[in-house]
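@channel sequence for tomorrow's demo:
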Amino acid sequence: MDAKTPAVPAALPAPPPVLVLAGPVTREEVRGLCGDVRRLLAASRARVVVCDVGGLGPPGLGAVELLARLRLAAVRAGGGIRLRDPAPALLALLDLVGLPFETERQPEQREPPARVQEAVEPGDPPL
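structure tokens (generated this afternoon):
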């Protein structure tokens, strides 16, 4: 590279495609959602599809079957799925049936820092 050629910044990888699951999902809808996963993987050339399961509803065997079928469709298409916003009960149920899933990390929600006390209380030991 010479002094006249500007440096080109490295491109950041594109975020993975997201499939939002709103439930409850019927058995008839599962086939279409599996096709959606395959199409998202093919169109984006991503290795993973993020499945937003926050609106899936209460966890049950229907949700487990849906996620198992989506995972199978993704694996057959050469990718995988990652869960976004899963309820703790859904994760526990998936673990119980032997289907652990990768999940997206959510930012921790912390309390704002407490105010610093400037005054010294009588009887406090010196630092």
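heads up for whoever presents: The beta strands are 18-22, 48-55, 80-84, 102-103.
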